[in-house]
Amino acid sequence: MAFVRSYNLLLRRWDQYTLMFLLFTIASVVFTSDSSSQEAGPSTPVPNLAPIVAKWQLQRDRLTANRAAVVTYLATSRPPSGKVTEAEFRRLWSQHDLVDSKQLDAVAKMLDATLNAGTVGFAETTLTVADANFRNDVSHGGLVGSMIRHGDVEIRARPRNKQVHIYNAGEMPISSRTLRRLAYLPSGTTSWTDYTTDVCDDNTTKIVSPDGRRALVVDSLSGFVRESSYRIILKDNSALKLVELQSAPFDPNAELLFPRVRASATFRDGVLSKFEICVIVDVELNAEVPASTFAVNASAGTLLLDHRGDVQNPTFVRLDEDSADVLETMDDPQTRKILQKKPKS
Fold this sequence. Notes:
The longest helix is centred in the N-terminal third of the chain and has 16 residues, at 50-65. It is globular and about 70 Å long. The chain is of the alpha+beta class. The chain is 20% helix and 32% strand. Strands 7-8-9-10-11-12-13-1-2-3-4-5-6-14-15-16 form a 16-stranded mixed sheet. The chain has one domain (2-296): outer membrane lipoprotein receptor (LolB), chain A (Clam). The protein has helices at 2-6, 16-24, 35-39, 50-65, 86-94, 104-115, 179-182, 326-330, 333-337, and strands spanning 68-78, 123-130, 133-140, 143-150, 153-158, 163-168, 196-199, 204-208, 214-219, 225-233, 239-246, 261-268, 271-285, 303-306, 315-318, 340-341. The chain is built from 9 helices and 16 strands.
């Protein structure tokens, strides 16, 4: 993990919107080659897709069966300041062998030069999962912000402004990455009956939806998704394209195939509007994760805000001493007696 620590020097202060984009971007992006490549070449019968769909289901079953895992990854996201086309973004992707994560410093410099993205730094994140519980710890600017789900509670710790927010599960306004959002798999509810396939010479298979809006490029043997895309026509007739590229698997022999590097991008009318690059550094499946992992500590002076009774108007208390477990502190009867509530505006 010395490599990970060395990249702490690259971390930069991220504002709230950057962090929100980091946590939201990967949830539902899908990637492809350009539309002309989708139309080229003969299509083989749909039954050729059955073995690949079966491999996706096997991956989903393994994700469900995995009781605990710890994944460390580095991520960066920036809105480009200049006009960057999809072709230019793909050229950026192809210029580097991103299987080698040691090239991150070169990638950061290239992002700065090619995408006019400003100073780019990779934030280190550790995702810990145990059954339905998870914890994301994001390091940036020397501080570690956390997002946790434990049982029926979600907690967001914001050390930069010394605040900890407590929610009922599902009510936290910012979503958090899970294993399913790091290891992309097509939905198990999709009907592939009318999709067409095209087996290519490089051992990949192109899969295109009947309307041509959705497309995937997958490894023909493993089913690993290399590219995925989805095109949407908005009400103002502008075109939105959600694109994702995935490099070779982190470990091609592992039970679960995580990409070594994942690039997610959104294009509006062919021009890049936002992007993210995520590099997986370490994966530990079936890890030992004690229950204490999901406790959140806080120092004296931290403001605890409890949104469980009213998401928009939380009760709050400021700690007068350190707390080893903010949830335990907030639920202590003595704390409940001194909770304050801001008047509704």
